[in-house]
Amino acid sequence: MAYYSIQNIPLTDLAKEFGTPLYVYDADKIREKISVLRAAFEGIDLTIKYAAKANTNLSILRLMRENGVDMDVVSPQELEIGLIAGYEGSNITFTPSGVHFSEIEYAVSKGAIVNLDNLSVLEKFGQTYGSSQPCLIRIKPHVFGGGNEKIMTAHPESKFGISIHQKAEILSIVEQYNINVIGLHQHTGSDIKDGKTFEQAASALFDFAYDFKDLQIIDLGGGFKVPYSPEDPGVNMLEVGQIMSNAFRAFCQKYGRELRLWVEPGKFLVSESGTFLAETNVVKRDPVKTFVGINSGLNHLIRPMMYGSYHYIFNASNQDSSKQEDYRVTGYICETDTFSFDFNGKQNERLLNKVKEGDIIALANAGAYGFTMASHYNSRFLPAEVLVDGGKARVIRRRETLEDILRNQE
Ligand code: LLP
């Protein structure tokens, strides 16, 4: 997993040319993941709706579009960025949670298909549009799945979706306003690798679906787990795809019609394409442990501090593994700010090839929920982003200046 280069360009060269902290993405990796996903659902009428929240850089969105991947968005801003990237509204699904109805009206006005997850919103949708606009309904299947409690979205206490136990209420609203429900949707959570969980969630949705007579689409969400280290198995996509495809085929047969299948992966498509590069400011030899302090922090990559997420870390400046040491890798933010967590969500030390000040430290799996969750905490600039494609690296988001931070302030 210690990839010292992307498409033959050494990470240290990228750090030198574009500066640090830096997000770098490998376009080939994204294309490869799209192909794997398609192969996993071979023979099924599949549309991939990329969960853009994972990475909304315009160039990444364009790459998705060029490869026939549609978009799933959660805010008017993501929708707007999608349109700027060249998407048609009709290729975009708006799957919001708890937003003001005006955002749904906005999405409809842009031609996006909305995915409704609340009875009162469904009713308002009916009152506003009657049968004139298509929609999907997001169901909460009461299934447990996901890497940690913050990213589980289908269990009984989750705020997402309309409970499968409220089918009668849904049907009554749909009938009252003659709402054009073209699809049903569910998303179980993130970081799921177990085929059984996907199967269980899908079957809950299928059981629910027979009472909806005009369906064209079943949307089974995203959440496919990616590998986070050489020892960590990601999802076996081909196996899971087959399980889901078989269940879907059986459903279509019983339903009496061929439907289209949508999936909405974020991480699966972009996580592994990204590497985050930072420079070692200090090596701090303390009596208890040795810290590697890098020129970044939870302001740039919050996943470790927010979820206890594991990111594979390596010293991109030193490939000599004969001298390794245990280091706690930390950031410069003014509170506990650790990048090195173990698989149980505890801060830990990592065995890295000997680190000296100035070395470039790389964190893997930085393509999803890295930059999009970055902030200006401590008034630091956001990192720059670089895309490597066709063996060439180019800036796809320039580094900020103080002007960017001050722009809207008085
Ligand atoms: N569809 C819906 C409705 C979602 O809410 C999400 C993610 C996805 C699809 C894509 O899930 P994915 O394939 O990326 O697992 N920030 C967290 C992940 C939060 C996911 C939120 N919803 C993290 O960094 O682990």
Structural class: alpha/beta
Small molecules held by this entry = ligand LLP
* Oligomer designation: single chain
Q: Provide the gyration radius in Å.
A: 22 Å
In CATH, the topology of the largest domain is named TIM Barrel
Instruction: List the total number of helices.
Output: 12
Let me know the average pLDDT: 97
Low-confidence stretches: none
Proportion of residues in β-strands: 15-25%
Q: Indicate the overall shape.
A: globular
N→C terminal distance:
46 Å
The CATH superfamily of the largest domain appears as Alanine racemase
Q: Quick one: how many beta strands?
A: 20
Largest sheet: 9 strands, mixed
Helix content: 25-40%
The CATH C-level class name of the largest domain: Alpha Beta
Count the domains. Answer: 2
**Annotated CATH architecture of the largest domain:** Alpha-Beta Barrel
Describe this structure in words.
With 410 residues, the protein is an alpha/beta fold. The chain folds into 2 domains: 56-265, TIM Barrel; 271-406, Lyase, Ornithine Decarboxylase, Chain A, domain 1 (Beta Barrel). The chain is 29% helix and 23% strand. The protein contains 12 helices and 20 strands. The protein has helices spanning 11-18, 27-40, 58-66, 76-84, 101-109, 119-129, 167-177, 195-209, 237-255, 267-270, 303-307, 402-406, and strands spanning 5-6, 9-10, 22-26, 46-51, 70-73, 92-94, 113-116, 134-140, 162-163, 180-185, 217-219, 260-263, 274-285, 290-294, 313-315, 324-330, 350-353, 360-363, 384-389, 392-397. The strands form 3 sheets. Strands 3, 13, 14, 15, 16, 17, 18, 19 and 20 form a 9-stranded mixed sheet that branches. It has an 8-stranded parallel beta barrel with strand order 4-5-6-7-8-10-11-12, surrounded by 5 helices. Strands 1-2 form a two-stranded antiparallel ribbon. Helix 2 (27-40) packs across helix 9 (237-255), helix 6 (119-129) runs parallel beside helix 7 (167-177) and helix 8 runs parallel beside helix 9 (237-255). The protein is globular and about 70 Å long. The structure holds ligand LLP. Residues 51, 54, 72, 95, 151, 153, 187, 190, 221-224, 264-268, 303, 307, 368-369 line the site of ligand LLP.
